[in-house]
Amino acid sequence: MDVITIESKSYKEIVAKIDVIANYVFSQEDTKNEDEIWVDSYEVCTFLKISDRTLQRLRAAGLVSYSDIKGHYFYKIKEIKRLLEERLIKRDKEYINDLITNHHQYVKERRNTKPNK
Question: Whole-prediction pTM value?
Fold first, then answer.
């Protein structure tokens, strides 16, 4: 293993540049097309007020597109909107706005609770 040492001033400059890049990336997430936002099962169930079993039935029947990452399911907002439009989930459009709004808060909370290394 190689050990690299640098001056404290240089290290702080690198960290500052990384922070600028991270802030830019996070600010871009807020402006991206809401239809392309990925939400997890917990968010869908909580903010649309449906059961996990209902979501599981929709997946099993092939009625909703999703991504499975290590047993966690993620859905694009446009898929959830389609489910509402086709009345596969019987909720008003206000629920999708609630989902999007709360998703942004949920992401910020998770970002703030991540341990710093």
Answer: 0.61
42: domain range? 35-113
| For range 80-109, the mean pLDDT | 82
What's the gap between Cα 80 and its chain centre? Answer: 14
In a domain, 39, yes or no: yes
pLDDT single digits (tens) 90-104: 887 788 878 888 887
Calpha distance 59→48 (Å, rounded): 16
Q: Is the dihedral of CA 70, 72, 78, 84 positive or negative?
A: positive
Domain count, the chain: 1
- Rounded CA separation 12/16 (Å): 6
